[in-house]
Each structure stands twice: as C-alpha cells, then as structure tokens.
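Hey, I'm writing a tutorial for new members on how sequence and structure tokens pair up, and I'd like a real worked example in the thread rather than a made-up one. If someone can provide the structure for the chain below, I'll link this post from the tutorial.
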Amino acid sequence: QVQIVESGGGLVQPGGSLRLSCEASGRMISILSMGWYRQAPGKRREFVTTLTRSGMTNYTDSVKGRFTISRDNTKNTAYLQMNSLTPEDTAVYYCVAVIETTPFDYENHWGQGTQVTVSS
C-alpha cells in the first residue's frame, strides 16, 4: 500500500511564509508527479501546483511568484514553499501523488490534508 503524509501546516500572519512537506511511502515502482490542491471553507477543492518527474511545473495563477514546489526524489518527498501568504490562502492543503504501483498502472494517491491558516 501507498501512504501520503503531509506536514508543515499551521497559523501564520499575512505576509509570512510556510513550507509544507509531502512524503510518499510504501510499495511503488515510480512517482510520475507530485502536487498540491487546497480546499477553503465552503469552497471546492482547487488545483494549486504540480511537479512532474521530468521537472515540469505548473501553478495556478493566484500563487505564481509566491509558491514554489520542489522535490527530493531520493526521499520521495515534495515540498511547497509558500511566501507572501494572504488570508485567501487559508485552506486545507492536500498532497496528491501519481504513482506507478504496478507496471504502467498509474494511480492518484491523496494525503489526509494539512491546515494552513493565514490570520493576524
């Protein structure tokens, strides 16, 4: 089985920074991509960013220039550095990894989510 575990959430003041971590573990052949979604209270879950195995990144417009995704392939871990945070960034952040669990069979695996609250 595959496990996805996020960490690093918390309370931060507007303009502050946080770094989220996401570690994938368990039986896997490879990780195709890792990324983050978020869900604010009363809103639908939305895409934030993704990083492919080849190094391609994609960001939603609202976080471009403020958030940076990176990955340590040796640790099967992705990081989300979030700078210049605003109250609009308040949400539960979910990590998702696209994982090859059997040859040529790719599945989405989600973490349990970590709360990020931006407030003074």
